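Listing S7. Sequence submitted for prediction.
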Amino acid sequence: MPEAVTPLVEVKNCTMEFPGVKALSDVDFTLMPGECHVLVGENGAGKSTLSKCITGENRMTKGELYIKGEKIDPGSYGIRESQRRGIAIVHQEFTLMEDMTGVENLFIGRYEKKAGIFVDWKALDRRAAQIMEFLQCDVNLNVPVKHLRTAEKQLIQLAKAIMDDPQIVIFDELTAVLQEKDIQNIFRIIKLLTSRGIGIIYISHRLDEVFELTDRVSILRDGEYITTLNTKETNRAELIKYMVGREMTQTFPPRSAE
């Protein structure tokens, strides 16, 4: 018998409550090595909330979290601990320092020193070039990022996320502000990462991306887990039905003549 593969991430019965609001209720989720697993749902379905429970930004009110088979103690689990365990997240919103160069943004807080005093800029330039070569991207990292295109800024954020060789990367609505050619470049990078066994959690509103990119799709609705499907075995109409809770006979109904 083939040896069972340990999931990179396993969430069981995740409940997340904020004062007066239950954002998640008994949600399950599993991510396997080398898989691109998409989370879909309408606004407020709980997609980003679940991702923050996985990264430690949110602490689950109830439920269990396993990272690479090890049960996590929610009391001591935070963002730094999730990073130590190989989890990285790339947000739609920019977290870059606009007046600093790409290289400075990549290594802020972790500058390599020479003689214990001076920043070793040549070493940082070499490391930055290696990362961009791995991503097969050409971005000018020596100008302030405020002069770069939106897609180039996203690539710097992505490069920063993978610098520590994470095994799990979360893409949170990354393509929402990108043009089609730049979206295709992100897809190429995701396929490169999954080919190396990295697990991708992909959060998106765009259903067309689900079928182009992912292996499995999990649907959330109003903070509740609905189902998980193999992408090849479903279709757009079925996903919409699960997302909204009913059949959608007209995506764009005709306008009234009046």
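Caption to Listing S7: primary sequence and predicted structure tokens for the chain studied. The chain has a mean pLDDT of 87. The two ends are 67 Å apart (CA to CA).
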